[in-house]
What does this fold into?
Amino acid sequence: MGGLSANLRSSPDASVMAPNPTPASTGLPAAVGEGLVLGPADAEARLVLLHGWGADADDLLDLGELLVGPQVSVVALRAPEAHPYGMGRQWYGLQPIDWGQLPAARAALHSRLAALASSVPLERTVILGFSQGGAMALDVGSGLPLAGIVTCSGYPHEGWRPAPAAGQPLPPVLLSHGREDPVVPYAASEAVLDTLAEAGAQVRLLPFSGGHTIDQAVLPEIASFVRRCLA
It folds into this structure.
């Protein structure tokens, strides 16, 4: 799974800057927005996938199939904004970074996840994000009663402090990051690890020798984590 995306090669954050797919929103509430769906409509557990900057909803879909069984709903959400280079999507602007867009991006993802909870509870949902999608998973997911969070090659947003949902512990978190990542430094995940540990979260970092990608070597441990969270 080399490369810069999880497709497992991409542009600054994405697959190969491939043309945007036509998202299939079958089975999703309108409030969820665009996304791709796998699995049964009556699933009792769900894996939500958040792609990286410059990718699209299909970028992580194959990964989802590797991590969970066919009885689990897999929803790959499409980021709301067009990528500035003309292909792919973004959760907020990165070149240059526009932290002013973050509150709206955070609120929009929160609303979409709340809409998904109408069919599968958040307590039975794991979110997995790559790079910018990983940062969004951490930011929004840490404030929800999720079953778990997986962040691959991610980073903390400026000023982020994990704040659990009222009366709930922080969700367990699994981090994965390449030590030679030229896009998002490995130290970013170390910072996330420290912040979550200080907040009392169950958190683990899986390092690997490689760059901005999701390495095949860590897939068994990611799959095991996701399945334990959804058991």
